Amino acid sequence: MKLCDLHTHLLPGVDDGATSMEYALQMLRNAAASDVALLAVTPHCNRPCEKRNYLDGSLRERFLQLQQAAKDIPVDLVLGGEVLVDEQLPQLLRQKKIPTINGSRYLLTEFPVDATPGFFQDMLQSTLELGYIPLIAHPERYLSVCQMPQIVVPWLDMGCHLQLTGGSIMGEYGKTVQRTAVYLLQQDFVACVASDAHGLHHRSNFLMDVYDHLSLRYSKQYAQCLMYETPMGICCDNDI
Ligand SMILES: [Fe+2]
Questions:
Q1: Which of 66, 72, 188, 197 is 20 to 30 Å from 14 by CA-CA measure?
Q2: How far apart are CA 147 and CA 150, in angstroms?
Q3: How far is the CA of 82 from the centre of ligand 1 (A)?
């Protein structure tokens, strides 16, 4: 079994994830122990009052330092970002300031938790018009989606995709989020499941439990699709 984790806060010192290189390496060993073969580091990007983590030399340099430090750990690394969607995003995309997953068309997008249905629709549309494919991070945690999960259908019809967080499926974010996550899985609305790991314990990147749960509850094939085949396709910029 091999897994691919497309959403982690593992690049040290740039957001609320790994606090040091040593801690990042421990997280990576944790990923390797969980059979993760490829992992995207996706620092928070475009968040106000925080490091913006736009795509520039400094971000690439930090990524190369991590790759170098982790060369003995059997996990391939790619660079991405988890971009907060706001009115400035289209302009930032035109300026090529936003890191996509491994330089692909796929953009891991985070919305404000209370984003309105109209805001989702407008911003997803403008992102698609610029040639990017939104991979919507943890839809199960947004209020609009919890209240009316069918809201995602037009987003999928437009060509967007959904990334669930493993912890949501396992109940780490409460019953409402878990119920929403299960509904999205049962409807086959989900492209991939990732860790959104911020550390070794709470919100960890040990994904094996999630894989086992999905295998038992649904099927091995579904788990493999959600946690390896489709995320690998995204990394390779394939149509999924
Ligand atoms: Fe995240």
A1: 72
A2: 9
A3: 6
How close is the Cα of 47 to the center of ligand 1, in Å?
12
Q: Is residue 199 part of a domain?
A: yes
Residue 53: inside a domain: yes
In a domain, 240, yes or no: no
CA distance 125 to 173: 29
Rounded to whole angstroms, the Cα distance separating 24 from 192 reads 23
- Between the CA of 112 and the centroid of ligand 1 the distance, in Å, is 12
What is the pTM for the complete model shown? Answer: 0.97
What pLDDT digit, counting tens, does each position of 36-64 carry?
A: 999 999 999 999 888 899 998 899 999 99
HEC per residue, 106-137: EEEEECCCCCCHHHHHHHHHHHHHCCCEEEEE
Match 């404000």 to its residue by tokens.
112
Tally of structural domains, the chain: 1
**Structural domain of 193:** 3-235
